# Entry
Amino acid sequence: MVGTPASDIQVTDGSFDYSTPEAVAALKGVSDLMIDVRSEMETGALKGVSSLILELREEMGVAGASEPVMRKVRLYERTLGLAVIPVLLRRGLYAVYYRVRGGQASQL
Amino acid sequence: MKVLHVNNVDLPGRRFNGYDLLNDMRSRGVDSKQAVLWKTSQNPDVTTLLDGGRDDLLLTAIRKVEKRHGMHDLLFPWGKVLANTQEFQDADVVHYHLVHNDLISLPDLPYLFSLKPSVWTLHDPWAFTGHCIYPLDCEGWLDGCDPCPYLDRPFAMQVDGAGRMWRVKQQIYRELEVDLVVASQFMHGLLTRSPLTAHFEDVHLIPFGIHTEQFLPDDWRSASRKRLGIAEDDFVLFFRASEIEVKGLAELVKALELHPPTRPTTLLTVDETGLLTQLTSDYTIVERGWVEDESLYLLYSACDVFVMPSTAEAFGLMAIEAMAAGRPVVCFEGTSLPAVSHAPDCGIAVPMGDSVALREALDSLAESPEEVRRRGELGRALATKEYGYGCYLDALATLYRDVEARRR
# Structure
């Protein structure tokens, strides 16, 4: 699964101060987290969620699906990707937030 | 020695971003490569950090999240990706250029700079500000950018995180071990005034170089005008027509509208077209659109005066080119241009945004061909002396060897 649905995350813009020394120290780990997100996009969440579509696409390709149908499949894949990534990114942001605040990362 | 240049893109801005140095630094014994986000050339010495559509999506998403949360350059992972490339690991020195275009997260800079001897060219004042590229008349960058009155300036923020970004930069810069390069006295002045960067000791003023010998001599003027369809006896003002606010076209148009010219005048432009329609009754307009270097030489040759009314400029390459072509430069005070063009002796600088003063300067030159010639000849001599491409390459090669020896 891809984690907490975006609608369940309470985002308050600018609600935490990322400029404190503790936050700046935590931010040094964010790019590693993003590398993990990137990796997850490749091997985990996106692939897992869309495996059925990939199979469907393969079957359709073998069966010689028409171009309009393939366009819909590609559009759906893209839409799925766009839906997944912000969720992963918000998880990243909240991981930093809770790391700075301390002790609540399990709530992610 | 091996140098890796890091920038967001390769071909656009190639004269500034290290791309042209890939070939040109070989003559100084420097083997150069470039790492970019977006590769637009076929050059095998350029490598891209993005891995297809997946990374495009990730980058777009991070950009949106940062904008929404009032952040800038805190979440991008490409710095760590860069560190894992073979080109980075092989390099003796890494030269960073425009790191702020979604390229490297600020918190990754101390890590990257600790891995390799590093040089960072500050191409604009972004490094001193909470979010904007050019602070213009705002002086918030001197004491924290909090609150920011200009959130819509690039790089725009949806919520005011400028003060927080300023403090983040302040903490991160304290840890940096890097040699900084600026191209103008103007940028050097900003750097030493900024509370964020005043503590840096290894700061080098290295103006960008140009091939001064490639500009056409004065006796080509008639041929150049004929080729462009410009009347031989017209007074010709050359400038960049751009809707980018800081390029100052609005101020120049206002000056040209003040009254009809005292002698037949042609306005010769590059870049955007159709922006001078209100001037067609009093002036002949010759718009050339976006042109490559070779055509630019022709345009400089055909003009009498180059006008650069930028309200913000960290260097001003076109001013140097105009000087190399033997043409006087007219500009506003408060940017890099007065110092770069050696105003008032060579260039002419008028108070920022003062269209009346700008028009008086242009009228004065229109009525005095001898003054135009004198300033032009002085400009050509200064450009050859101070902005020659060979000097530029020598200065960089010396810096790279010094940095490698000092920081290895």
